[in-house]
Design a protein that fits this description.
Elements: H1 19-28, H2 31-43, H3 61-70, H4 80-86, E1 95-104, E2 110-113, H5 118-134, E3 137-141, E4 146-150, E5 157-158, E6 176-177, H6 181-196, E7 206-213
Antiparallel strand pairs: 1-2, 1-4, 1-7, 3-4, 5-6
Helix pairs in contact: 5-6
C-alpha cells in the first residue's frame, strides 16, 4: 500500500520585515519564542523567490497567492461577489464590484476606509444610485458594504481598498489595470462629485471600485 504525501502552507503575514525591525523583534523574544521560530526555519526548504503579485496587486500578494494556490483560479482575484454573499446578500450571476469610500489625510495620502454608519446608508444610496445607473450598473447594500452590479463584463482589475492606505492620492491611477480601467476611474469620480453634494458625506474623499468579477459557477 502506497504512502500518502501531504503538503502544508504556513502563511506568516509580514514575515520579511525590514532588517532593523527584525533585529528588534529577535532581541525581545523569550527563549521559548525563539526556539519556536527557529523550528520553523530548521524544517524549511531552501527559499525560492516567486513573483506572484503583478500590479495592481503589489501591495496584496497574499490575495493573489490565495486566489491561485488555494482557490486554483487564474487571472485577477475576484472577491466582491463572495464578500457580498458572506455579508448576507443573495447569490447573483452578474458581475459585481465592491464600492468602498476612502478618506484622505492631511498629507494628501489615502487615510483609510470611511466607515458607513447606519445614518449614512440611505443618503449614500440616494446620492450615488443615479451615477451608477448612468454607467449601466445597479447600486446595492449588503448590510455591511456597498456593491454594484454591471450588465456587461469590464476588462479591469483594481487593488483591494485595504491595501491603499498611505498611498499618495495622485498615485491611485496606478492601482488599476485593464482596458476598461478608465471606466472604474470615471465612475469613481462621478460618485465622488455626487457625494460632495450632501453635507453628511463630506468626510468621503473618494470611492474605490475593486474585487470585480463573477462568482464561479454563477
Amino acid at each position: 500500500m502506497g504512502t500518502m504525501t501531504y503538503k502544508a502552507f504556513i502563511l506568516i503575514p509580514g514575515a520579511r520585515w525590514p532588517e532593523p525591525a527584525a533585529r528588534h523583534l529577535l532581541e525581545t523574544l523569550t527563549s521559548a519564542e525563539r526556539a519556536m521560530l527557529d523550528a520553523f526555519g530548521d524544517a524549511a526548504e531552501d527559499p525560492v523567490t516567486q513573483w506572484i503579485a503583478p500590479e495592481p496587486f503589489g501591495r496584496a500578494p497574499h490575495l493573489v497567492w490565495a486566489w491561485r494556490v488555494v482557490a486554483q483560479r487564474r487571472g485577477a482575484p475576484v472577491t466582491a461577489p463572495y464578500a457580498w454573499v458572506a455579508q448576507g446578500g443573495p447569490e447573483q450571476s452578474t458581475e459585481m464590484w465592491a464600492l468602498t469610500p476612502l478618506t484622505r489625510d492631511a498629507e494628501g495620502r489615502v487615510g483609510g476606509v470611511f466607515p458607513i454608519t447606519d445614518d449614512l446608508t440611505l443618503p449614500l444610496l440616494m446620492r450615488l444610485s443615479p451615477a451608477v445607473e448612468a454607467a449601466g450598473g445597479r447600486l446595492q447594500w449588503s448590510g455591511a458594504g456597498l456593491y454594484l452590479t454591471t450588465k456587461t463584463l469590464w476588462d479591469a482589475s483594481a487593488a483591494p481598498a485595504g491595501s491603499l492606505e498611505g498611498l499618495p492620492w495622485d498615485e491611485l491611477a496606478h492601482q488599476r489595470a485593464g482596458t476598461d480601467a478608465h471606466k472604474l476611474e470615471e465612475l469613481s469620480l462621478a460618485l465622488t462629485d455626487a457625494a460632495k453634494a450632501d453635507p453628511k458625506l463630506t468626510g468621503i474623499a473618494g470611492f474605490w471600485l475593486h474585487g470585480g468579477g463573477t462568482a464561479e459557477g454563477a
